[in-house]
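Form P-L/3: holo structure prediction, ligand D-xylitol-5-phosphate.
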Amino acid sequence: METKKALIAPSILSADFANLQKDIEMLNNSEADWIHVDVMDGVFVPNISLGLPVIEAIRKHSLKPLDVHLMIVQPERYVERFKEAGAFQITVHYEACAHLHRNIEQIKSMGCKAGVALNPHTPIAVLADILYMVDTVCLMSVNPGFGGQKFIENTFSKVKELVLLSQEKNCDPYIEIDGGVNAVNAKPLVDCGANVLVAGNFIFSSPTPMDTIQNLSTRIR
Ligand code: DX5
Ligand code: ZN
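OUTPUT (holo model):
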C-alpha cells in the first residue's frame, strides 16, 4: 500500500478530557503519527486548556510522540518542564517571542525538536532568518484558541510561499497545518506542500474517530 504523504497529528483538544486514556489508546492503535497537544494560557489566546500534569499523564499511555503547541506568553519560562513532561517537539508562537532565536536555541539545546507557529495574519517572510534552525513551521489555519473553527482559505497560498522560502533557504522544515483540517482540504493542502496535518474536531466529533483517521490517511496517499 502506498504510504501517506503527510503525517497526521490528532489534536487532543477535542478529546474526552474525562476519559483521556481511552482516546490515547485509540490513537495508539490508529494511523496517527504524532499526538498534538494544545497548551493555552488565557493570555496569549482567549482560552485556557491544559498544562504539565495532563501532559505527564498522557505520556504514560501514549505510544506516539507528543507534539506540544504552546499558545502561551513567555514560553522560555516553561519549555524545560514541557520537555521533562514528555514533549518530543515544542512549538512556540512567533507572535509570543521577542527573542525567537534564543527561544529556538533553548528548545534545541534540550534535545527537543523546535517548531514555530504563525498566526493567520503573520506573513511567511518573517521566517527568513530563522528557518534554518526550525524543525517544523506550524501555519495556523484558524485564529488560535479554540477547536472546531472554520478553515481560513488563505492558508493555501501561505503553504506555497513557505515551500518557496524553504527552497530559497535550502531548508526542509515540516509544514504543519493547524485548524479546521478536514476531509475536503486535506489533500489540496498536501498537494501544495503541507506534510503534517493537525485535526481535532474533525476526528473527535466523528462517531468512529479511528475510521476517520484511516479515512484521512487514505485521502493523502
Ligand atoms: C487551535 C489549536 C488547534 C485545534 C485544532 O488553537 O491550536 O490545534 O485544536 O482543532 P480543529 O481541528 O478542531 O480546528
Ligand atoms: Zn494546535
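COMMENT: The longest strand covers residues 87-93.
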